[in-house]
Amino acid sequence: CLEGTRTEILDEIKGWVTTTDATAPQVLWLSGPAGTGKSAIAHSVARWWMEDSGGIGSCFCF
Fold first, then answer.
1. Has this prediction a pTM greater than 0.70?
2. Domain extent for 42
3. pLDDT at 15
4. Is residue 59 part of a domain?
5. 37 burial class (0-12, 13-18, 19+ CB within 10 angstroms)?
6. Which residues does the UniProt record annotate as the domain Nephrocystin 3-like N-terminal (predicted)?
7. What pLDDT shows up at residue 55?
8. Cα-only R_g, the chain
9. How many domains does the chain divide into?
10. Pick from 31, 50, 27: which is nearest to 41 by CA?
């Protein structure tokens, strides 16, 4: 995402990734109409996680 955009959803996802709450959902489902930035959000989260932890695992299914 461009700097300063989609900050609300990115903060929500970062909170989900870093939570220690055992009752938190184990899967985050990112959905929306075409062109709403799902891929940009996923890219930003992956980039943030790689910079922060040095590794990431993911699954992409249709």
1. yes
2. 7-53
3. 93
4. no
5. middle
6. 5-61
7. 64
8. 12
9. 1
10. 31
The answer to whether residue 61 is domain-embedded is: no
Instruction: Dump pLDDT digits (tens) for 1-56.
Output: 888 989 999 999 999 988 999 999 999 999 999 999 999 999 998 888 888 776 66
End-to-end CA distance of the chain: 23
Q: Output the six-digit token pair for 43.
A: 């890219």
Q: In terms of C-beta density within 10 A (0-12 exposed, 13-18 middle, 19 or more buried), how is residue 44 classed?
A: buried
What is the DSSP-derived secondary structure letter of residue 23? T
Token pair of 9 as six digits: 């959803």
What is the greatest pairwise CA distance in the chain?
34
What does the alpha-carbon distance between residue 31 and residue 34 come to, in Å, rounded to a whole number? Answer: 9
14: which 2 tokens?
Answer: 């970062």
